[in-house]
């Protein structure tokens, strides 16, 4: 990687960050975990405040979610819109990912709108049942 100038990150750093976020979106668990194990912050966020965990949850990659949580990802960290990984998984109706997050202690009431609010607003009874059972 080249050295960044001033306060702006260099292009190599930006390219790596884009790659890391793409790995979370695509569920490339082993490769993403390798980067985190090598020092990439597990709670890295993009320009919208989406963490690696939120992206993995939204795109329904429960194994990636579990790997990030095992490495210390904050289960209830919200993005710039107040959305958590659990709310993202509920919105996308991903029961395995919702279960993985709940087992790790994700709070159905965290964020705004919370996962519970999301399930109620979009009339997702199966998700609401999972969330209430996970409390």
Structure, described:
By secondary structure, the protein is mainly alpha-helical. The chain contains eight helices and no strands. The chain has one domain (about 10-135): Serine Threonine Protein Phosphatase 5, Tetratricopeptide repeat (Alpha Horseshoe), CATH 1.25.40.20. It is globular. The mean pLDDT is about 95.
TL;DR of this structure?
This protein is mainly α.
At the fourth level of CATH, the homologous superfamily is Ankyrin repeat-containing domain
In whole angstroms, the N-to-C terminal distance is 45 Å
Order of helices and strands: HHHHHHHH
- The protein's oligomeric status is single chain
Write the SSE topology:
Blueprint: H1 11-26, H2 29-37, H3 52-58, H4 62-70, H5 85-91, H6 95-103, H7 115-121, H8 125-133
């Amino acid at each position: 990687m080249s050295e960044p100038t001033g306060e702006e990150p260099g292009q190599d750093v930006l390219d790596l960050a884009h790659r890391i976020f793409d790995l979370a979106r695509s569920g490339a668990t082993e490769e993403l975990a390798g980067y985190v194990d090598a020092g990439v912050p597990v709670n890295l966020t993009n320009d919208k405040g989406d963490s690696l965990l939120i992206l993995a949850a939204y795109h329904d990659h429960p194994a990636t979610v579990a790997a990030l949580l095992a490495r210390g990802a904050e289960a209830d960290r919200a993005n710039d819109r107040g959305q958590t990984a659990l709310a993202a998984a509920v919105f996308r109706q991903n029961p395995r990912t919702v279960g993985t997050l709940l087992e790790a202690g994700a709070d159905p009431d965290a964020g705004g709108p919370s996962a519970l609010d999301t399930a109620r607003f979009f009339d997702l009874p199966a998700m609401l049942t999972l969330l209430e059972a996970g409390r």
